[in-house]
Amino acid sequence: MQLCLALDLASKAENLSLLQKLKDCPIWVKVGLRSFIRDEKKFLEEIKAINPNFKIFLDLKLYDIPNTMKTATQECKNLGVDMITIHASSGIEAMSEVMSVAKDSLLVFAVTALTSFDDEGFIPIYNAPIKSHAKTLALLAQKGNCHGVVCSPHESLEIKNSTSLLTLTPGIRFAENEYGDQKRIATPKVAKEAKADFIVVGRPIYTHHDPLQATLRFLEEIQ
Ligand code: C5P
After folding, report:
1. What is the number of structural domains in the chain?
2. Which one of 21, 120, 174, 182 is separated from 216 by 20 to 30 angstroms, measured CA to CA?
3. 84-134, pLDDT tens digit by residue?
4. Catalytic residue (choose from 12, 55, 61, 195)
5. Is the CB of 138 under 6 A from ligand 1?
6. What is the CATH number of the domain that holds 52?
7. What's the per-residue H, E or C state across 18-68?
8. What is the extent of the structural domain holding 163?
């Protein structure tokens, strides 16, 4: 299992100074909407300058018509990143187009249900409970040839048992951490038991008074 650190801080300088403290840690680095919109391609280069071995996960959660998804995936590939996210609800045709470009040189994870949803917020939009809908979307992602799906640790095991997909689980917290806007949270130990291949952690590390200590604790927990 791999740990992805979400670089979601308020400025590029803060993100880079956080990463400097963790430069020898065996982590993936997640660049999401906030950081990529603000700091663009240059930020990816600066991450690699800190440690060329950092793998970069560009988490833009693409959702559009198949041709736009395909061409956007090509642009992600041109950036040299290692992993991207798309939405499984973009459909099999769009996912297949993405995978025709990504092939085996860019990992593609399809989002099932965001971990900030609980059933109360989810059902009015999708007309189904999270657990069953996440599995339905995972089966679609498998048909679309994606490498994996994004889900919570609470859905991961069932998806792993019914597909050959990798799973990536955000919403990871130790008991004493605040939830923030996340609703379907779990500890790293639960994520490991649910056979998640990647966990994504942001605030529990970057708001910690000692981010290195927090990172090492997460890494130890997922050994
Ligand atoms: O701070 P926290 O640990 O909640 O950060 C989780 C990260 O994972 C955020 O960057 C968020 O955008 C991302 N994410 C998520 N749920 C998903 C997909 C990505 O929380 N389904």
Report:
1. 1
2. 182
3. 999 999 999 999 999 999 999 999 999 999 989 999 999 999 999 999 999
4. 61
5. no
6. 3.20.20.70
7. HHHHCCCCCCEEEEEHHHHHHHHHHHHHHHHHHCCCCEEEEEEEECCCHHH
8. 2-221
